[in-house]
């Protein structure tokens, strides 16, 4: 929550309302800290009901606000407002990031108030800042015998001085850090034939300077090796990459290393005979350009071919197969159940049993219909879409299908047994005698 600043919004109603909603919803500022100017009277009344301060003149907003957000471009305002903008340096456009912008605004407001407490300008030097703080600290210190001593005023002065010092030190450290990080890409190198004569060898005859130069080079090489080992140890401990020198990075010689390694592996495999009796050896490669569709991109065609070779099937094809198998299984189950009943019309008991069987298939039908809906959304061709299963139509199809002869005879025979239950002992032997007589006639 930013409680130390007052912000004004000037512009059309939609953008102004959007900005105020963002500030309030993010809990960045309180409604009483906002001051609004807009030409839309209805929007102004709504903002007043929300607890916002609405002014009829943009100049009043500029006077009352520490910072002003322009919710339109400068060309959308009058000349008087633009002139007021030029006088006020705290004008910000709405396109800038809000939270980072508010941090800068709070810091700027705090610095302005701190300089006002010390009675200084923002461009004063450090010595003037120190002298002003010492003078006011002596004047308002609680232990001083002066009549203006005040602990509250002294703490305010001390806080203002600390904040200014903190801000200046941060800016100074930032500038020094940028200067220290400057690393020139081009370093001066002396001519090769004059190095030991000029650089870091002192005075003496050419032979003496050359001897000292050789010693220094050896010592420098030892130091470089030690530094490299230390860096490698640190990199292993911290799991970090070693930043290599620009010149030494060019000395890495790994060109064609992978190619030679692959060639060695191929030669070893050929010696072991792994390339013998390969399928298609000595034959031309298969030409697949003739089978390619002219309406499909070559890359898309190859990707689809790779997917098909690896056993990939689109989801809508899998759904189609599942739906057809489940419908077929459902029809077979209903037909098997239908064969246990007699011919139409059913009796009351058979009708009740048949209704129970149909009722038990409703969850499976609902599941199949859900798959059909999903399939219709995924299928790329509209002609391949399916119609949902209707239980009534399925029942009519099963009932109108003729019952097999074996099942029909069995059911009729069972009916005769039930009807003629009293004479069953006499009829069954006669039936078998009749069957045996038929077989004997065929043999003769």
From TrEMBL:
UniProt feature, compositional bias: Basic and acidic residues: 167-176
Domain J: 113-178
Region Disordered, annotated ranges: 167-188
InterPro entries: DnaJ_C_subfamily_28, DnaJ_domain, DnaJ_homolog_subfam-C_membr-28, J_dom_sf
Top-level lineage group: Eukaryota
PANTHER family: DNAJ HOMOLOG SUBFAMILY C MEMBER 28 (PTHR39158:SF1), OS08G0560600 PROTEIN (PTHR39158)
Name of the protein in question: J domain-containing protein
Species this chain originates from: Aphidius gifuensis (Parasitoid wasp)
């Amino acid at each position: 929550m930013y409680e130390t600043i007052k912000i004004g919004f000037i512009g059309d109603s939609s953008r102004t309302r959007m900005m105020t909603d963002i500030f309030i919803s993010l809990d960045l500022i309180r409604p009483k800290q906002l001051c609004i100017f807009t030409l839309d009277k209805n929007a102004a009344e709504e903002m007043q009901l929300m607890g916002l301060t609405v002014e009829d003149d943009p100049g009043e907003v500029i006077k009352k606000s520490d910072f002003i957000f322009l919710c339109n471009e400068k060309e959308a305002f009058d000349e008087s407002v633009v002139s007021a903008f030029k006088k006020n340096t705290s004008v910000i456009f709405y396109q800038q990031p809000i939270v980072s912008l508010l941090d800068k605004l709070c810091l700027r407001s705090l610095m302005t108030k701190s300089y006002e407490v010390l009675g200084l300008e923002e461009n004063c030097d450090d010595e003037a800042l120190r002298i002003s703080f010492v003078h006011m600290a002596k004047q308002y210190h609680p232990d001083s015998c002066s009549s203006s001593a005040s602990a509250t005023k002294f703490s305010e002065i001390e806080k203002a001085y600390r904040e200014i010092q903190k801000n200046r030190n941060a800016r100074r450290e930032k500038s020094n850090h940028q200067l220290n990080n400057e690393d020139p890409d081009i370093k001066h190198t002396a001519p090769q034939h004059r190095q030991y004569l000029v650089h870091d060898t002192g005075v003496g005859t050419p032979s003496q300077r050359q001897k000292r130069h050789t010693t220094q080079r050896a010592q420098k090489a030892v130091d470089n090796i030690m530094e490299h080992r230390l860096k490698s140890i640190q990199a292993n401990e911290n799991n970090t990459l070693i930043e290599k020198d620009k010149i030494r990075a060019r000395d890495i010689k790994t060109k064609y290393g992978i190619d030679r390694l692959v060639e060695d592996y191929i030669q070893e495999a050929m010696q072991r005979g792994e390339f013998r009796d390969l399928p298609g050896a000595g034959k031309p490669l298969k030409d697949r350009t003739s089978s390619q569709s002219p309406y499909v991109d070559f890359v898309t065609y190859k990707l689809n071919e790779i997917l098909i070779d690896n056993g990939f099937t689109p989801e809508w094809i899998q759904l189609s197969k599942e739906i057809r198998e489940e419908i077929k299984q459902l029809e077979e189950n209903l037909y098997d159940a239908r064969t246990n009943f007699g011919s139409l019309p059913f009796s009351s008991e058979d009708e009740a049993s048949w209704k129970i069987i149909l009722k038990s298939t409703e969850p499976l039908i609902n599941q199949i219909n859900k798959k059909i809906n999903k399939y219709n959304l995924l299928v790329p061709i509209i002609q391949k879409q399916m119609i949902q299963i209707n239980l009534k139509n399925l029942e009519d199809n099963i009932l109108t299908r003729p019952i097999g002869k074996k099942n029909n005879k069995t059911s009729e025979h069972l009916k005769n047994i039930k009807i003629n239950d009293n004479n069953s002992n006499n009829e069954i032997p006669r039936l078998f005698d009749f069957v045996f007589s038929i077989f004997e006639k065929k043999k003769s």
